[in-house]
Task: structure prediction
Amino acid sequence: MSKILLLGEYSGVHKNLKEGLVELGHEALVVSGGDGDKNIDSDISITWKSQNKVVRFFELNKILKSLRGYDIVQFINPYLSHRLANLLYGSIYKNNKKTFCLAAGDDVEVFKFLFSGKMKYSPYDEYLSYENFRKSKLKHTTLLDFILQHKFISKQDGIIPIMWEYAESYRNGPYSNKIKNTIPLPINTDKIQYNENALKNKLVFYHASNRPKVKGTDAIVKAMKIFQERYPDDVTMIYADFLPLNEYLEVISKSNVVIDQCKAYTYGMNALYSMAKGKIVMSGAEPEALQELNVQSSPVFNITPDVEQIISQFEYLLNNRQNLAQLGYESRMYVEEVHGYKRIAKQYLQAWSS
Result:
């Protein structure tokens, strides 16, 4: 039995991974801030009563110093709730065995790749160039960010990407020698009830986003409005503000099609939650992304930040609405076979030991 510490959260990746590891007989602990407004459960919560950054810094230091004796520690990227958190990681490195970085979410290397011009489109196209992005004074673009990232990555025993975007970011950067094989996102389907995707009066499409610009919400909503006007008697288009995960899962139960995002090459955790419930999902499913996951095909309907392309996918689903139940079933089976939490936990155990 291994003792495993999972630091940070990314849409429930560590929560689901922990559940897989425990099922396989290992001890695992998740320490996170719940991934912001998503409010994802963890064993030790890093949430702050004080708004004082100095107080929060020392509170985090106290928590990190208490985490010792683990065989494996896995971080999600260099940042843990506090921008300067990795200045405190010395006790983690000293008091535990191996440490790994899960390449998931924004960081310096990811932003450098997104602005390299090697992608047909990216979540940050509106900035047009990395220089414009730096001028926006967002995270991961300053000299301090470069220094902190190098300090952090140089200490890791390996980097494990969750999808093509992150794998390519690190393959094209200075830390390519540390990259492990990409491991698909894990999801515990035992806790998500599957229901047949049944058509009632109208075909119901649903979209919500916590980061509209990054997810391509403008193009998606424009396509939804055009399609609603074109087929008012056949479809219902629902656009809602961001919801915490538990509420999101309740709302999508009333939908046939969940529109996740259109500016990513790879689908994410929200897509998996929806597919596990038997929903048809529209998201990123580019050939590069599927090849990275070692799959030949996916039931995800690939959409890009092109209104007409999105509408064409809407048209296909409307014209094939008699196949909703079968498409929903294929979604569930795909998630179980490619992203099953115990299967994925085994892949992590292998990566950590190699």
